[in-house]
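Thread: sanity check for a docking pose with pyridoxal-5'-phosphate

Original post by kr_44:
Hi all, I'm comparing my docking run against an independent structure prediction. Below are the sequence and the ligand SMILES. Could someone generate the full complex and paste the structure tokens? I mainly care about where the ligand ends up relative to the chain.
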Amino acid sequence: MSTKFGRLSEYPRVPLSVLPTVIQPAPRLSTELGLNLYVKRDDMTGLAFGGNKTRQLEFYFGAAQAQGADTVVITGAVQSNYVRVAAAAAARLGMDMHVQAEERVPDVDATYRQSGNVLLGDLLGVHRYAYPLGEDEDGADRAVQAIAEGLRTEGRKPYVIPLAPGHPPLGALGYVLAAGEIVVQLQANGTRIDAMIIGSGSGFSHAGLLFGLRALGQDIAVHGICVRRDAQAQTVRIGLQCAELARMLGLQDVVSEQDINLFDGVLAPGYGQLNPATADAIVLAARCEGLFLDPVYTGKVMAGLMALAANKTFPEGGNVLFLHTGGTPAVFAYGSQLQHWVEP
Ligand SMILES: *Cc1c(COP(=O)(O)O)cnc(C)c1O
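Reply from moderator J.T.:
Ran it for you. Here is the predicted complex with pyridoxal-5'-phosphate included:
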């Protein structure tokens, strides 16, 4: 199978994830949604509460080690899951971790600033820098390069993990491999899937999954749910990342424009901001399946799935795979807001 992924094996990779993650049926949520729902438990990838970032970071830490780096620099939201998992990986590999914390979410409370991923980052010993303009992605990218430059003048060997466009989407390679893992699991179980649902933020997971499926000749629909920017902007971003993946792997004509599906109907009021549909989805998943979703990503993805199901996007009783990409620690960071939605 790996030959179908072209030059992927040439990219250095540090194993960080416990794989394969299981695919579980969700029978009570299925009844609620009028679908046959399965959940790919990438919230259980093992390192530091897991999530999609462990698969992505295997390639960034692979590149960092290949360059002889002793320090990692990353930028992300204050409650970033990426930062938490990267810090845990750095700890495990004996590297220092410098974090630029972007103010992306307005009107946050003390719990948001101290609990969840912030607390875990403190335990992991990250060095933090504040970045006030969380919506300026290019500015955040420049600022993180400046932090790395400062570390270089101190004699450190920093490796920057970039999120912004304009850098090779190494993280997406983790989800190209995940597509292969899923196809093997579905074939072994004899399960046919009509559609997959995944959060689309940086886009690495969405682009990698879509690219990997198509490279394997699988035409399963992939629906990205927007969690950061609107569908139009995200469509452009996913298209660019798929083109870049083709270039990196030496493959051609893998993903076409019609393959890129994005839904932004549950994004409002914006990144990291809870809305009623998302709160309802979080409570429903907990009470139907004992499954925890988060306010920033997976809760919105479930709310998006419910909206798509209500719009008859899938055949009645169709088989849908929900990619649970993690984010569990954010439940605690948003605890005071979530509390409002919980009936005694
Ligand atoms: C980062 C993240 C996403 C979005 O994944 P991208 O690869 O950045 O698009 C989805 N879910 C969770 C829990 C995340 O932490």
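Residues 2-52+169-341 form a domain with the Rossmann fold fold (CATH 3.40.50.1100). Hope that helps with the comparison, let us know if your pose agrees.
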